[in-house]
Design goal:
The protein contains twelve helices and two strands. It is mainly α and about 280 residues long. The longest helix has 21 residues, at about 95-115.
Amino acid sequence: MWDLILNPFVTVITLLYSLLANNAVLAIVVFTILVRLAMYPLTAQQQRSSVAMQNVQPEMKKIQEKYKNDKEKLAQEQMKLYKEHGVNPLGGCLPLLIQFPIWIGLYQAINHALAATPLQLIDLSGRFLVTGLDHLVPLNNVFLGIDLTQPPTINPIYAMGLPVLVLATSWLQSKLMVPSTPAGGNKDGKPDQAQAMTQSMTTIMPLMMGFFSLSFSVGLSIYFVVSNVITIVQYSMMGKMDWKQVLSLGGGGGQTPAVIESKPAPQKAKPKSGKAK
């Protein structure tokens, strides 16, 4: 099953390698750009869904407070609120589910295309979907003294800069993807649970990505960095960004009104009074 993803990836990376003066890094960068362009409709949906969910949070808090002792009524009112504002609570999940096999396929494709092991070198020629690429084997998997098929910990010390870049760009991306929310808590004085969870995710996810980059191949770290930068550019193009807020230690920096306008709830017409003033 993985061959359906792996073989096209290996073929495209090798083809780009041949077109870009046998430069594996440029091949990975251009490949990443092509993947992100192909997935743009999904990532744009994820970004809009994230902001739309944030738009309804003030009303959601009121509903949660009003029906905190009635779980069934609370669920009904939440779904009603989502429907009125055109929000899909699961709208941001699909792009993540699609990207996950792409990450795995790309990780394997980099190792196969750049032949991390002798067995992969033998297996490489049989994975090309385009004829005439066999003469490129083996591909040059070393760039500036760094083996692209090995993790940074096995490469020269300066390769450790890549996990740092992965962490930094992942953190900046998470800050942009989470629109700013007013600080505060519930009426009982307790901290807002949703806001606390959001803040935790903007810290935990970048740390996880940076940690994973220590074990993954350098080539995949390059993919992560370029992919994060593309996402940041795409999101910035959707509206004006408050970079002071982004670079602060507080919440996210997306400006909700500039990115998406939630559909207002329909207003009921007030009955006219028959009494003359």
